[in-house]
Amino acid sequence: MRVACSLIVVMLVACNRDGGGAPDSSSTDAAMLTCLQIADGLRARTQAVSRQCTTIDDCELVGYASSDGVVATCNCAPHFAVSCEGDPVNWQAWSADVRAQELLVQWRTRCLAEGCGVSGTCGCDCGRENVVCGISGVCGATSNNECFSAL
C-alpha cells in the first residue's frame, strides 16, 4: 500500500511539473504568448538590459504608447513600458537582446493591430519623453508633456 501511495504522489508531481499554468514569457516561443504576456516579457527586458551610457546617442526610449510601434501618439494606444511615455535603455544592449527582439516582432505584428483591449496596457495622452544620458552615466528620461503643449 505504501508503494502504491508513493507511486501516485510521484506521478502527480511529474504530471504537474510544468506548473499547469500560463506559459512563461521568458522562455516560451514568443508566437505562443498572449499580447499581455508579450507586454510583460518586454517590460521585464527593459528592466534587465543595460542603461549605461557615455552620450545621449547611447540611449533610446522603448515601449511608449504607439499605434505602429514607431511613432508615439497622444491618442490611446498600447504600450509595454513601465511608463506609457517610454522606458530608457542603452540602444545597443536593447538591439542585441535576442529575447527582446523576438518579443518585439510579435508585439508589432500582432498586438499593436489588436489595440488597447487585448494588450492589457493602454496609455492615453502620453506622447514620448525626452531621453537623456545622466551625469551618472545612466540613460534616463525627462517628461516633455508634448500632448499638452498646444493647450
Q: Helix count?
A: 5
Summarize model confidence as the mean pLDDT: 80
First-residue to last-residue Cα separation: 78 Å
Using the CA coordinates, give the radius of gyration.
Answer: 20 Å
Helix content: 25-40%
Describe the biggest sheet? 2 strands, antiparallel
Structural class, by secondary structure, is: alpha+beta
* Count of all domains: 1
- Taken as a percent bin, the fraction of beta residues is 5-15%
Number of strands: 6
Assembly status: single chain
| Arrangement of strands in the largest sheet | 1-3
List SSEs in N-to-C order: HHEEEHHHEEE
Write a compact overview of the structure shown.
This protein has helices spanning 2-15, 35-48, 91-96, 98-114, 116-119, and strands spanning 59-62, 77-78, 87-90, 122-123, 130-133, 139-142. The chain has 151 residues and is α+β, with helices and mostly antiparallel strands.
How would you describe what is shown here?
- By secondary structure, this protein is of the alpha+beta class.
- The protein has one domain.
- The chain is built from 5 helices and 6 strands; from the N terminus they run ααβββαααβββ.
- It has a two-stranded antiparallel ribbon. A two-stranded antiparallel ribbon has the order 2-4.
- α2 runs antiparallel to α4.
- The longest helix has 17 residues.
- The protein is flat and about 40 Å long.
